[in-house]
Design goal:
It is built from 5 helices and 3 strands; from the N terminus they run ααβααββα. By secondary structure, the chain is mostly helical. A 3-stranded antiparallel β-sheet has the order 1-3-2. A hairpin with a 5-residue loop joins strand 2 and strand 3.
């Protein structure tokens, strides 16, 4: 008697693949995978590569990715202590799609910003008030 392999469906709220998708869709995950795509890196190097991430959030995300088998954490027995993070073969399978998403974001940001401006203008005309998003800088760094 052979058993059929499970059929995973991220659209079902009870499917465990949904938690995997949520982890991959996390903005920090994508940037960490991109940062590690060139090879192993230390915590500080990853933090520097991923601008704006706090040490606490980086440590938590790295731990979650290690738990999911996306990366490995190697602690070297030397002084001073040294720890490196590296994508696993499973994590390597995320490089291409996540790098493609990053490239898409860079290539289409002008269109996205234009759509936001148009939306905010329409909302301001409808409500007569300035949305909170208009109070934030939308262009430049």
């Amino acid at each position: 008697m052979t058993s059929n392999p499970p059929v995973w469906n991220v659209m079902l709220d009870t499917c465990p693949s949904r938690t995997s998708l949520a982890r991959i869709a996390n903005k920090w995950t994508a940037m960490i995978v991109i940062a590690l795509s060139e090879g192993p890196a230390r915590f500080g190097t990853v933090r520097q590569a991923v601008g704006g991430i706090s040490g606490k959030v980086l440590a938590s995300t790295l731990r979650d990715l290690e738990r999911d088998g996306i990366l490995t954490r190697t602690a070297y027995d030397e002084m001073p202590p040294r720890v490196e993070y590296e994508l696993t073969p499973l994590g390597q399978t995320l490089r291409e799609p996540l790098m493609a998403l990053g490239l898409w974001a860079e290539q289409h940001i002008e269109e996205v910003l234009g759509a936001r401006d148009a939306f905010d203008d329409r909302r301001a005309d409808e409500t007569g008030s300035t949305p909170e998003s208009e109070k934030l800088p939308r262009r430049g760094f």
